[in-house]
Amino acid sequence: MKITIYCCLLISAIFASGCYTAPVKPPGGLLFTSYKAPITADFSHTSNDRELIKTSYDQTNFFWAYFISAAWGEVDIDEIAEKAGITDVAYADCEFLSILGIYQQFTLNVYGYAK
Hints:
By secondary structure, the chain is an alpha+beta fold. The protein has helices spanning 2-16, 77-84, and strands at 32-38, 53-64, 68-72, 88-99, 103-113.
């Protein structure tokens, strides 16, 4: 009986931990989910007189048996902008793709200007 309680507590702790959830939780489909949404809603930094630069970075995640997860990639707006030479970030959006809940891809798109 004690082993069953400990197992239930361990499984609950895994599901309740922050490392098990994605940074953005879109509405999910059973077989396929594709979602795109803005991260910033303030477009006051966008300008029509300068050319907008777009850069993207992906974070891929694989799930095995819904308990073991392997993910790689760092999704950070400042770091992505710096690597692309963007000095003034205008806005950002994200894309999420999930196939059967096993393969998941999170893409962060950053738009901005270079000086």
